[in-house]
Design brief:
This protein is an alpha/beta fold. It folds into 3 domains: about 210 residues, FAD/NAD(P)-binding domain, CATH 3.50.50.60; about 100 residues, D-Amino Acid Oxidase, subunit A, domain 2 (D-Amino Acid Oxidase, Chain A, domain 2, 2-Layer Sandwich), CATH 3.30.9.10; about 130 residues, no CATH class. Helices cover about 40% and strands about 20% of the residues. It contains 16 helices and 17 strands. The strands form 3 sheets. Strands 1, 2, 7, 8, 9, 10, 16 and 17 form an 8-stranded mixed β-sheet that branches. The protein has a 7-stranded mixed β-sheet with strand order 5-4-12-13-14-11-15, with helices on both faces. A two-stranded antiparallel sheet has the order 3-6. Strand 16 and strand 17 form a beta hairpin. Helix 8 runs antiparallel to helix 10. About 45% of the residues are buried.
Length: about 500
């Protein structure tokens, strides 16, 4: 190998997290390099949905090419199907224009989004090595050495710090013994672009069904009758019950054609692509001697929705402050870099721990009938009560997610439902119709069937599932009483002025 080219920081991976990290560091005057295996633009398996939190970051980065594209279809509404029937249709209730968040989302194909973000990093003075694979990463004599291959050319980059932003199968994570393989926190997806879609305004579709549990299908519309259509489901369920994601995807396409009035004529445009995400529920140590992990490499993915674009960018902005301070102080050891974990947990945990408990409860495949029934009632309540829709609905993708108010809303509805249901059960008992599988009787029956089927199917797994739910519920108590949601109330360390002097520290509020 040739003599190593020296940088302050090497970022492995040029997706949203890696590019935002390089952009942030470069604007502080840090000599930063990005090593990206692909040559952009390139395809990436993703729902392509950039929700309000992500748009807030793009606005701060002055990503005009993404934000000012008049062909973008603003996503402001949703149609939710449960078991092939519409359970909710209306405005997305938890999108509000406050805290710098726009009241909408955009579908931005990843080949566009990622290319633009990489260009922003390059414009900020980051050195970009496209079409270059990181083949070997090691730390020696206080430096990180990154072996790079580009075709037949081999060379070495050297730096004080390395950032793993190279996705779920991260070479950086593997090199430092931080790979994660727990199927409980891995989701498998398949998506394709389709044509022939006809929907009102920017109405997204979310689909819940028995065969997609625990997971869901989506249809995110774009202009010109195109849409991103896909399914995602927990890897553990696929492994335990022999589920085929490609078959689930094909079945979902057919269900859309039959049940969705705007999808009768859809046709798949191009080959469906599959991918994997690792969620925040399985997050572990994301720092080591000489570096950190961010984005998908660090498991910064919503446990319920599988959304990773915004959390990935947020993790990069949080980590960039740690790395800048590390360079200033000349401290590159894991003990110093552990402040990244302190900061990201203070920022993400209040919302993510709640979502992790929800995901743990729904891991049990045998309870899918009960959860689908509960979901139907919940969406009916959301359609009738805007406050409930805004507060409790934020569990489905709202940035301003506050667990305590959500639990308060849910318990008030549950207590009321139990009271009404008990009266109904008593009247049915008097009339001799106690076997009618509806209302509270039907819900209790669904829960009982799920419990016994799970217990009989695999008693050891059932016991471990219960222990996992109990453990996560106990951990939730630590953050449950957090005032507000840090993801909304704390400004991220982002630069507001595109033309600010290179090397100036960005304005921020401490996380």
């Amino acid at each position: 190998m040739s003599t190593a080219e020296v940088h302050d920081v090497i970022v492995v991976g040029g997706g949203p997290a890696g590019s935002v990290m390089a952009w942030s560091l470069a604007r502080r005057g840090v000599r930063v390099a990005i090593v990206e295996r692909a040559s952009f633009p390139r395809e990436k398996v993703c729902g392509d949905f950039v929700e309000p939190g992500g748009l807030r970051i793009l606005e701060a980065m002055q990503c005009r090419r993404v934000l000012d594209d008049s062909s973008r279809l603003p996503i402001t509404c949703t149609r939710v199907f449960i078991r092939s029937r519409v359970a909710y249709r209306g405005e997305i209730p938890y999108y509000e224009e406050k805290h710098g968040l726009p009241p909408l989302g955009y579908i931005v194909p990843r080949h566009e989004l990622d290319t633009h973000l990489l260009d922003r990093a390059r414009a900020a003075s980051a050195t970009v090595y496209e079409g270059c694979a990181a083949t070997e990463i090691r730390r020696e004599e206080g430096f990180v050495r990154v072996g790079v291959r580009s075709g037949r050319r081999h060379f070495t980059l050297s730096s004080r710090l390395v950032v793993g932003a190279d996705g779920t199968e991260s070479t950086v994570a593997r090199s430092f013994g931080l790979s994660r393989t727990d199927r409980r926190y891995i989701a498998i997806s398949q998506r394709a672009y389709v044509e022939g879609v006809s929907v009102e305004r920017g109405e997204a579709t979310i689909w819940f069904d028995h065969d997609l549990f625990p997971g869901y299908g989506w249809m995110f519309p774009m202009s010109g009758g195109r849409a991103n259509v896909g399914v995602g489901i927990l890897s553990e369920s696929c492994h335990r019950y022999g589920l085929s994601v490609p078959k689930l995807f094909g079945g979902f396409i057919e269900k859309l054609r039959v049940r969705h009035p705007g999808c009768a004529q859809i046709r798949v445009a191009g080959k469906p692509l599959g991918g994997v995400v690792k969620t925040y529920g399985g997050i572990g140590r994301n720092h080591f001697d000489g570096g950190v992990l961010i984005g998908d490499a660090g498991s910064f993915v919503d446990p319920m929705t599988g959304e990773g674009i915004t959390p990935g960018m947020e993790s990069a902005l949080i980590a960039s402050s740690t790395l800048a301070e590390s360079l200033e102080r000349g401290r590159f050891d894991a003990a110093f870099l552990s402040r990244f974990e302190r900061d990201f947990r203070r920022y993400f945990d209040p919302a993510m721990r709640y979502l992790d408990v929800c995901a743990a409860l729904m891991r049990n495949w045998h309870f899918r009938e009960f959860w689908l029934r509960a979901g139907t009632r919940g969406f009916a309540e959301a359609a009738a009560d805007p406050v409930f829709a805004r507060v409790a609905g934020s569990s489905s993708g709202g940035l301003d997610l506050r667990p305590l108010p959500i639990l308060g809303q849910l318990w008030s509805r549950i207590i009321g439902y139990l009271g009404e249901g008990s009266a109904e059960m008593f009247l049915e008992f008097l009339s001799g119709r106690v076997n009618r599988p509806s209302g509270l009787i039907g819900d209790l029956g669904a829960w009982q069937r799920g419990w016994w089927r799970s217990l009989i199917d695999d008693p050891l797994w059932h016991a471990s599932w219960l222990a996992d739910v109990a453990k996560k519920s106990a951990r939730l108590q630590v953050t449950l009483w957090t005032s507000g949601n840090p993801r909304v109330k704390d400004l991220l360390p982002i630069v507001q002025n595109e033309n600010s002097t290179s090397g100036r520290s960005p304005k921020c509020v401490s996380l």
